[in-house]
Structure formats: C-alpha cells, structure tokens
Amino acid sequence: MKISLQEAAKRLKRGEVVAVPTETVYGLAAMLDNEEAVKKIFTLKGRPQDNPLIVHISDLEALKGLVKNVPATFSKVASFWPGPLTVVFDADVTRVPSVVRAGLLTVGVRMPALQLTRDLIALTGPLVAPSANVSGRPSATMPEHVEADFGADFPVLDGGECLCGVESTIVSLQDEAWTCLRSGAISREDLAKVFGSEPQAQVFSNKPSSPGQKYRHYAPHCKLQLCASSEELWSHQASGHFDAVLGFSETKTLLPLFSLGLKGDFSENLKHLYAVLRELDVKACHNVLVDVDFEASGLGATLKDRLERAAKK
Ligand code: TXA
Ligand code: MG
C-alpha cells in the first residue's frame, strides 16, 4: 500500500515499521530509539538476532550523536555521503540500542543519496533499515517487491525503482587502513583511489566483523547453476535439466533468456539484478543457468558476489 511522506513519518513516529525507498534498495524502517519497533523488523523479516542494522541519517550533525568518535580516515570517504556507502564506527552505546547493533560495540551508518529518504529522516530522526525483503530472498528495488514479500497492505513510501538496485558498500576504518566488509554500489577500486591504499584482507572467524555475510542471501526459490564459460553453459544446456538462462544480451542460448542488459555495463546489470531474480520465480523456473563469464573488476565484483551468494545451496 503506497503512502505519502507525511503518512510515513506519522506511522514511524507511532512506532510502526514502514518500507522506504533509498537509492540502493528499499529498506524496512523503524525509529532508532524505538526498541519495540526495531524488534518488529527482525520478526517481520525472519532475521537472525545476531545481524545488526544500518542506521540512516540525513545530515552529518546526526553522526556525532551515534558514534564515540569520528576517525580522521573518515575525511577520505566523506565525499561519498550522501550516497551508497556505509561506514562502521565505534558506537555510542548509550545512544544506539543494543538490539540495533546486535550486541556489537560498533554501528554501521549511512546517509542515503535519495532526497525523499533524507526528507523523511529530517522529519523523524535517524532510521534503522535493513533491506525490505524476507531474510535470504532477493532485495526489493520496487514497491511491488516489498508487497510481494510482506503483503499488499504493507505501508510503502513510493520512490519508484531504485537507482542503484544493489546495497551500499560497507567499510570499516582503522588508523591508516580500511577494510571492505561488503561489496556494493561503490567499487573497491573507487574506494582504493580515495584511501590511497588497497583494503586490508577481511579476517573471517566464527564472529565475522559483518555478521550478515555468513548468511544465505539474495536467493530466488529456483536453483541457480553458475557457468564460468560459454562451453560450460552449452554443455549444461544440452543435459535437458535446465529451463532458463540468467545472462546478458550477448549470452548465446536456446533456452528462454532473462537478461541483465549488455554484459559489462555493470551498473545497469546491478540495477536489474534483483527484479530479474524475482522474475525467475514468478515465471516458475526450476533450474536456471547463470552466465558468470565476465571480469570481476569494478562493479563486476559486486555482481559476481551477489550471483555467487544467490546460487549458494
Ligand atoms: O543499501 C543498503 O545498505 C540497504 C539500504 C536499505 O540502506 N540496507 C541493507 O541492510 O542492505 P541489510 O540489513 O540488508 O544489510 C546490512 C549489512 C548486514 O550484512 C549487516 O551484518 C551489516 O550490514 N552491518 C550492520 N551493522 C554492522 C556493524 N556494526 N558492523 C559490521 N557490519 C554491520
Ligand atoms: Mg539485506
């Protein structure tokens, strides 16, 4: 159910959860300081309790109220705000409820580029918002996707189709170094340029520094089989086991093709990715071949990451 900006603000202030657009994907938003509303998000999504939420702000002033300190390295990436970059800071634990941080001592913060989102936050204050999809499913890039997951009556602030169509890139900052915790709408290369260094390797352990990365993600109901070359794709196709191909305009196949556009136009490909993954289920595909015969550089790395995660059993 599409609602206006004023209505969205009113409902959020009443403690309701509302789906909101951003330039990346739709988010399932609640007020930062309303723990009951934040808990509702976890229940609605079926989200594991140990997966923290990103806090969305509309101006830099708000950052000071959420974090212990702003490290000097932040100045290197400050120009990406507003925009699809989430930065992990040491949290001011008296201001950011534990349920938002999933008990961590850090908080992920971003300032969305979409004016409509910032207008809403200006009315409500900081909003926590995970992607507006049932946990594990492809993210939502249109109001219709939110309604498909949460029902036609679920309140959605309508921002049309998301500009990026893929989540924000998440980084954490050290004194002289930086770590990329999730690839996203800003490429590693663009970040390396402003930092003047390559990212530190991420250390994975039982307690990963970005908990969400350990879960199955972005997956349609159908099974995806990744093909790293056209030969692989043709030999799988010949088996008769597959009913469709997820690929690009240039992908050669005899099966129905679900296209992400021109191969190598990665921002365009990412913009359509989740809608196309959802479309595979709408069209009742069962076994789908995926063309991953492309270079994983720039935003190609984000596209490959999402396809690999979507294909995980
Ligand atoms: O583009 C986006 O980031 C979208 C829009 C709605 O803003 N949000 C989004 O939220 O993708 P979500 O919850 O689907 O993914 C957030 C990711 C999770 O993998 C979570 O583990 C990680 O951010 N995260 C959140 N807080 C963190 C923290 N303090 N330290 C490390 N990772 C954190
Ligand atoms: Mg998500």
Quickly list its features.
31% helix; globular; 313 residues; 4-stranded parallel beta sheet; binds threonylcarbamoyladenylate; binds magnesium ion; single chain; 8-stranded mixed beta sheet; alpha/beta
Q: How would you describe this structure to a colleague?
A:
- The chain has 313 residues and is an alpha/beta fold.
- Helices cover 31% and strands 18% of the residues.
- It contains 11 helices and 14 strands.
- It has helices at residues 5-13, 35-45, 60-64, 74-77, 98-101, 115-124, 143-150, 188-195, 230-238, 266-282, 299-311; strands spanning 2-3, 18-20, 27-31, 54-56, 85-90, 106-110, 127-128, 156-157, 169-173, 178-182, 223-227, 244-247, 257-259, 287-291.
- It has an 8-stranded mixed beta sheet with strand order 2-3-7-4-6-5-9-10, sandwiched between helices. Strands 11-14-12-13 form a 4-stranded parallel beta sheet, sandwiched between helices.
- A hairpin with a 4-residue loop joins strand 9 and strand 10 (178-182).
- The longest helix has 17 residues, at 266-282.
- It is globular and about 60 Å long.
- Bound molecules: threonylcarbamoyladenylate (TXA) and magnesium ion.
- Residues 22, 24-25, 27, 51-54, 84, 86, 88, 101, 104, 106-108, 129-131, 167-168, 170, 181-182, 209-213 line the site of threonylcarbamoyladenylate.
